[in-house]
Amino acid sequence: xxxxxxxxxxxxxxxxxxxxxxxxxxxxxxxxxxxxxxxxxxxxxxxxxxxxxxxxxxxxxxxxxxxxxxxxxxxxxxxxxxxxxxxxxxxxxxxxxxxxxxxxxxxxxxxxxxxxxxxxxxxxxxxxxxxxxxxxxxxxxxxxxxxxxxxxxxxxxxxxxxxxxxxxxxxxxxxxxxxxxxxxxxxxxxxxxxxxxxxxxxxxxxxxxxxxxxxxxxxxxxxxxxxxxxxxxxxxxxxxxxxxxxxxxxxxxxxxxxxxxxxxxxxxxxxxxxxxxxxxxxxxxxxxxxxxxxxxxxxxxxxxxxxxxxxxxxxxxxxxxxxxxxxxxxxxxxxxxxxxxxxxxxxxxxxxxxxxxxxxxxxxxxxxxxxxxxxxxxxxxxxxxxxxxxxxxxxxxxxxxxxxxxxxxxx
Length: 411
What we know:
Layout: E1 2-5, E2 9-12, E3 21-28, E4 40-43, E5 46-49, E6 59-65, E7 83-87, E8 104-111, E9 127-130, E10 148-152, E11 164-166, E12 171-173, H1 175-188, E13 194-202, H2 204-218, E14 225-231, H3 246-258, H4 266-269, H5 280-284, E15 301-306, H6 310-317, H7 329-334, H8 339-355, H9 357-360, E16 366-370, H10 381-384, H11 397-405
Parallel strand pairs: 1-16, 3-8, 3-13, 8-10, 8-13, 13-14, 14-15, 15-16
Antiparallel strand pairs: 1-2, 4-5, 6-7, 6-9, 7-10, 11-12
EC number: 3.1.1.-
Pfam families: PAE
Protein name: Pectin acetylesterase
């Protein structure tokens, strides 16, 4: 599925679910965090979000710590045990099947880095709000409202990819173990009987959902319908306004610090050229960029992103290191851009769409690229809600994702 809007907008979409529905949402703004904003105003012809209260009528879900994870070494950066927030569904979605083989559906969401509280479960919020794709309201989330839903907390610093430690600094880099320990715990709570499952993530969680998608799918029987979705996780290896590659430098640091060289997707690393004139960390960092990974993901995948991703504009296109004079501040912080800045950003949008061309040609995949100045759209009521289509869009994000997941044909 490829969604292209009539005004400045394209869309690629992916998600996954199980008919014992389990919605596993990995909200990990891990490598990238962002100040998403609610409620949109029009600036330069593009919707911009500003802060809005969630209101009292919102689903609040408590934290569950995986106490058995410590014995498996599945711990946060500081050695504390990891955790997740679980809400059991109802009706046709199927409740968590603790003591039965009842079929159910699950969404798993991987948390974003912005809310991860410095790599320690001791600092995590004990309760969080479930909104957007995690909402339990049929009017806001018609396809997944009654599924079992879990949000996995992010505390490893590398999108659930590392498996090493720094004894001198007393830091644990155990992202892969954390992912497997949480999934094992949820399997024991009924996810093993899921008929449909969707792995989702926002920002670094969206990157995590891409990196762990096939791993997640492999844990279910072939009769389970498993798909994945990456929201705001399509980070480009882009040239910034100074001509450098700020995000590549950041990713290189993550690879070097956590020793990811042998843990990244082999479908990518086996094609790397060690003679390309870069240091090894920089070379291997290429396999953290979704544009170099997505075409090898076997599980159906949906890419949801903004062509004017607010986090990437502020941290990859025009970070302070590339803009010492602050000439891009208004554009990167509030999308108040002049003509030349918009021309640069149009080039960024074109690069994003070009990077998705081959991926979008597969019928199993989906893409939804919006023109909103935003970062993470599936976890927000005002962007996910099916009534909140942007002018020029054929359908809202929730409907587009549902059509892709359930393979509904356009009438």
